[in-house]
Design brief:
This protein is about 40% helix and about 15% strand. The protein is an alpha/beta fold. The protein has a single domain, classed as TIM Barrel (Alpha-Beta Barrel), CATH 3.20.20.370. A 5-stranded mixed sheet has the order 1-7-8-6-5. Strands 2, 3, 4, 9 and 10 form a 5-stranded parallel sheet that branches. Helix 9 packs parallel to helix 11.
């Protein structure tokens, strides 16, 4: 059965080679959690903001002024409020920005870099990668990379696919374009190396999750069933618990927010209170995703840790059963 034939066949009829091939295509490799953080910090905090703005409706061909205005709020109000808050806490962050969003708001994109933050690739117009052919996907990511480089004067080192939509060709495109890291997958709490069909790629993954994203809690669709279902302060409690667990384990607390979502007054309150909570721990390293990826990638030069439950390798051959006492 070819890769194309199986799509019209129920999954319970797939031979093992098909379902195993899908599972193994993009997989977790070595864990890349450093043994220590810079300046003796106990945990790392990686804040990120997806500055989608008007690209969400534009992606779907929606040109309603009402929908575009909802996205414009992120540029007009949300982004500035976020930047002022980050400055107050001295916290660098990563802003993943669709290229069309940067073209609409070039001064905003440049301000991110000017104020010490990172700008990462987030697609061309927040397209859905799984609906694209491999060539179109690569063309759009390359165009986005070049556009952000031209506008900000900095070449992005990381990518977050729009909507965390990862197609069968996304990984190869990311590798071909030389990105240091990706932040679109959800296979761990901590950074790890991505495997392609069992082969180590050297690509660092900074994993995300819907739990640590503001959109699922607060997004509103006027004509659909999508309605905000969680009080902002309940979300604050979830995020505090996520940070506290990362802190206890000496790991990473990664958060994904959107200026047009979190930037509203009643929601910005919980981001401020979250940063107050994190700031109450003196030994925390605030890092951009690029900084975190570089710290994680250093682990690739270290000997791989043995798999749990296996004995470390030695130069002495194992004793045969007849030679054991």
């Amino acid at each position: 059965m070819s890769a194309h034939d199986h799509r019209s066949t129920p999954s319970w009829q797939w031979p093992e080679s098909v379902w195993r091939g899908h599972v193994d295509a993009v997989r977790t490799g070595r864990g890349l959690l450093p043994p220590s953080w810079p300046d003796g910090a106990r945990a790392a905090v990686a804040l990120s903001f997806d500055s989608d703005h008007e690209t969400i409706p534009l992606r779907d061909g929606e040109t309603s002024p009402g929908l575009l205005a909802q996205g414009e709020y992120g540029a007009r109000k949300g982004a500035g409020r976020v930047l002022e808050l980050l400055e107050r806490y001295g916290a660098p962050a990563t802003f993943f920005m669709p290229a069309v969003s940067a073209l609409l708001h070039p001064d905003e994109a440049r301000r991110y870099v000017h104020e010490g933050h990172e700008v990462g690739v987030h697609g061309w117009i927040h397209e859905r990668n799984t609906l694209l052919g491999a060539e179109d996907e690569q063309t759009l990511i390359l165009r986005a990379l070049e556009t952000l480089s031209d506008i900000t004067g900095r070449t992005p080192t990381g990518i977050r696919t729009p909507s965390w939509d990862f197609s069968g060709s996304t990984l190869q495109t990311v590798l071909d374009l030389g990105f240091l890291y990706d932040s679109s997958l959800m296979a761990d709490d901590e950074p790890y190396e991505v495997l392609a069909n069992g082969t180590a790629t050297g690509l660092v993954e900074i994993p995300v999750d819907w739990i640590r994203d503001d959109a699922p809690y607060f997004t509103m669709d006027r004509f659909g069933a999508l309605r905000p279902y969680t009080r902002p302060r309940d979300v604050l409690e979830i995020w505090k618990d996520e940070f506290d667990a990362a802190y206890r384990e000496g790991g990473v607390f990664q958060l994904t927010l959107h200026p047009h979502v979190i930037g509203h007054r009643s929601r910005l309150v919980i981001l401020r209170e979250l940063l107050d909570h994190i700031g109450g721990h003196r030994d925390v390293w605030f890092a951009t995703h690029d900084q975190l990826a570089r710290a994680a990638r250093e682990q690739l030069a270290r000997p791989a840790a043995p798999t749990p439950g296996t004995a470390p390798a030695t130069d002495t051959p194992p004793t045969s059963p007849t030679e054991r006492p």
